Amino acid sequence: MMTVCVIATARTSLSDAAKVTALFETLQEHSRKEEGCIQYDLGIREVDEEVEVLVMEQWTSQAALDDHMTLPHFTAFQEVSEGLVKNVTMHVYTLHS
C-alpha cells in the first residue's frame, strides 16, 4: 500500500508561540476528521529563541492531500497565520509499506 507523508516545519517568535500553537492545534483537530487523513501529529520545540513547529501528516493518497489543502479550515489557517510563521518548509514523500 502506498500513502503520502508530509513533513513540514515552521517557526514563530516566542511572543507569538501560544497563538501559533493554538492555530496549529485547531488545524490538527479538523484535519484528523478528514476522510483521507491517516495521521496528523505536531511537535514543538524552542530553537534559537524561536519556537519551531513540526507537522507530520500521512494521507491515503496525493488526491486526499490535495483536497485537504483546499478545505476551509486549511485556507483559514493560511490566512490567519500569515505574518506569524516564517521559515516554512514542506516535504512530501510517497511511503511504500
Strand order across the largest sheet:
2-3-1-4
Give the CA-based shape: globular
Helix content: 25-40%
Number of helices, where a helix is a run of at least 4 consecutive DSSP H or I residues? 3
Instruction: Calculate Rg over CA atoms.
Output: 13 Å
- Write down the secondary-structure element order: EHEEHHE
Portion of residues in beta strands equals over 45%
Number of strands: 4
Question: Biggest sheet: strands, sense, closure?
Answer: 4 strands, antiparallel
The low-confidence runs, each spanning 5 or more residues with pLDDT under 50, are none
Terminal Cα separation, in Å? 6 Å
- Secondary-structure-based class equals alpha+beta
Mean pLDDT: 96
Question: How would you describe this protein?
Answer:
- This protein has 97 residues and is an alpha+beta fold.
- Helices cover 33% and strands 45% of the residues.
- It contains three helices and four strands, in the order E-H-E-E-H-H-E.
- The protein has helices at 17-31, 62-68, 72-81; strands spanning 2-13, 37-47, 50-59, 86-96.
- The protein has a four-stranded antiparallel beta sheet.
- A hairpin with a 2-residue loop joins strand 2 (37-47) and strand 3 (50-59).
- Helix 1 packs antiparallel against helix 3 (72-81).
- The chain is globular.
- The N and C termini lie close together (6 Å).
- The mean pLDDT is 96.
List keywords for this structure.
97 residues; alpha+beta; four-stranded antiparallel sheet; 3 helices; 33% helix; 45% strand; globular
What is the strand and helix layout of this fold?
Blueprint: E1 2-13, H1 17-31, E2 37-47, E3 50-59, H2 62-68, H3 72-81, E4 86-96
Antiparallel strand pairs: 1-3, 1-4, 2-3
Helix pairs in contact: 1-3
